[in-house]
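Before we proceed, please read the two lines closing this message. Report back on whether the structure tokens fit the sequence:
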Amino acid sequence: MRLLLLWLINTLALFAIPRLVDTVHIDSFSTALVASLVLGLVNTLIRPILIILTLPVTFLTLGLFIFVINGLMFWAVADLVKGFQVDSFGAAMLGAMVYSIASWALSTLFIRD
């Protein structure tokens, strides 16, 4: 049940991004559902591998390269899911930051430990 609630929260956060960042476009709520599922899978499976592979660059940039990795994951999901578009890599980085903040805020409000 908690996993479904987290998925719904992440979907709501993703669905709100086009209202905050006008270079990110989502066609419908069902597209946001699919995109949040794919984003969760990509972040679970591929992101840790990229973090390990780019560890030296991450150390040199004092951890700021993680923002680039997050933007890449967001942009990759936009390429995979039809109806979810990101205009540029900068928009993907901004969208990933807004998505993380919105997801964290909504999770804090609705999920209690």
